[in-house]
Design goal:
The chain is built from 9 helices and 15 strands. With 373 residues, the protein is of the alpha/beta class. β1, α2 (50-66) and β2 (70-74) form a beta-alpha-beta unit. α2 (50-66) runs parallel beside α3, α5 packs across α9 and α6 (208-227) runs parallel beside α9. The protein is globular.
Length: 373
């Protein structure tokens, strides 16, 4: 009887120990690979025309306020202005200090007043006022940077309101990086317009040393993030891969007017920059790299060679996109609708969701396009 009792006692202790070990193991696995979001990133570009972006910005505002553990990045072309003698607006320029320009910037900033995450703006070709000369374009760029930065400093709820919110700063090409998600996610900010201007424009002397330093620094930042096993998101205004209107062959008048030519992917300086960036990302052999841009007024997603290419340039303008040019479902997707992207980070994977609407009167829809479970 005593032996039976001893056996039962040992069996009880063994069973209890097994339950404890299994429980701890389960908790450890859950801690390593949580099935709940650990961070969210919202990406919207080309939202600089308040009269056409209002409905989309309102939807983004709801998402941001419901998800404070997040960051939002405005991907350039933050303001469209430009007029003939102050009358006929043709939207070639960017921020010019006018009331119209301030209103268009404030339409974006106002949705951030009650947001508790991090906010960043990056420049696009319109923010450089579509200039072909760095010195001339920087004047307008710095005015926009100051207006956005100074305004966001007054929004105390924003996590980084007292830090730099316009990256890269001072018209520099970058790269500038910020870590999020407890050091698990790295975002690298690039001013692609500055790179294009440096590559080929005759308005100033090409700064080869600046370009070499940029690409060396980008390579080093990619390697550092990889060594730390971080997810990598590179954000710029100009896409590497896209199938929108800026990717169509240049027409005669665009070839003549330089400020329009350099917005096209086939323009030599643009093409050279895109190839250089893409080769660095592909040579890096990192399993989770995202390159996110705006510029094309559409929503596009491509996946090739373990690289995710997102185009989120439908903040206020929408171009008709040729669906027939993108027929590999899951690898190449295009939408001619207003909207923005959301990347949700989990322990070992991410999901990419596109929020889109056909017209302002239609409800915003969410479509998971990558990493869907």
């Amino acid at each position: 009887m005593k032996k039976i009792f001893t056996f039962l006692l040992y069996y009880f202790h063994f069973s209890l120990l097994t339950i404890v070990i299994l429980s701890l193991s389960k908790n450890f696995v859950s801690a390593q690979t949580p099935n709940f979001p650990t961070f969210k990133l919202y990406l919207i570009g080309d939202a600089g025309e308040a009269d056409t972006s209002a409905a989309t910005l309102k939807e983004l505002k709801l998402k941001l306020e419901a998800n404070p553990n997040s960051a939002v990045i405005f991907l350039g072309d933050n303001c469209y202005t430009g007029s003939i003698f102050g009358k006929a607006t043709f939207n070639v320029g960017g921020y010019d200090g006018s009331q119209l320009a301030k209103d268009r910037i404030m339409a974006q900033l106002n949705i951030l007043r009650d947001y508790h995450g991090s906010v960043y703006f990056i420049p696009g070709n319109h923010d450089w006022y579509n200039k072909t000369n760095v010195k001339q374009g920087r004047k307008h760029l710095l005015e926009e940077e100051k207006f956005i930065t100074d305004t966001l400093k007054t929004f105390s709820s924003i996590k980084n309101h007292d830090e730099e919110t316009y990256l890269p700063t001072d018209g520099n090409p970058g790269p500038v990086s910020r870590d999020f998600n407890d050091g698990k996610t790295r975002v690298i900010f690039i001013d692609s317009q500055r790179l294009i201007m440096e590559e080929a424009h005759p308005g100033h002397r090409k700064d080869t040393a600046l370009l070499n330093k940029f690409y060396d620094d980008l390579k080093a930042q990619l390697q550092d993030a990889s060594d730390k096993k971080e997810k990598i998101i590179v954000v710029a205004h100009h896409p590497i891969v896209a199938k929108g209107n800026h990717s169509l062959p240049l027409v005669f008048w665009q070839k003549i007017i330089r400020r329009f030519a350099d917005t096209n992917t086939s323009y030599p300086a643009y093409h050279k920059m895109a190839v250089h960036l893409d080769s660095l990302l592909k040579a890096h052999h990192h399993p989770d790299v995202y390159y996110v841009a705006g510029h094309e007024h559409s929503l596009e997603y491509f996946f090739t060679d373990s690289l995710h290419y997102l185009v989120s340039g439908a903040g206020c303008k929408v171009d008709n996109v040729n669906q027939e040019s993108c027929n590999n479902e899951g690898l190449c997707l295009q939408w001619g609708q207003q909207g923005f992207f959301e990347i949700v980070f989990y322990g070992r994977y991410e999901t990419v969701t596109m929020y889109h609407r056909l017209t302002d009167k239609d409800p915003m829809e969410g479509s998971c396009i990558a990493g869907c479970k």
